[in-house]
Amino acid sequence: MTQKETDNMKDFFNRTIALGFGIAAESKEQIEKVVDELVKKGEVTRQESSEMIDELVKKGEETRQKFETVVQERVQAVVGERNWVPRSEYDALVQRVEKLEQQMNNHS
Length: 108
Known about the structure:
Layout: H1 3-40, H2 46-82, H3 87-107
Helix pairs in contact: 1-2
Protein name: Polyhydroxyalkanoate synthesis regulator
């Protein structure tokens, strides 16, 4: 896999996680609107609505965390299957090759 493909895959996963955060934020607003409507209709009290919002937001956060964990696990699985060299090892190899090239040029 080329560096561009790797970067594209990382970008995709980052956007997916960002989407999850956006959905969570939007969900809180939607939850508040729905619960406010229940209060207006007299189906729940203001106290109950506050508790309901907190509980639903908490469940949404738990779901977002589970989603993020699943995405991270999938990324690690894909990376592990590819047997990619960690960036630090790659950089070390580049430095070794450059050093060897300099040594060869100095002895020529």
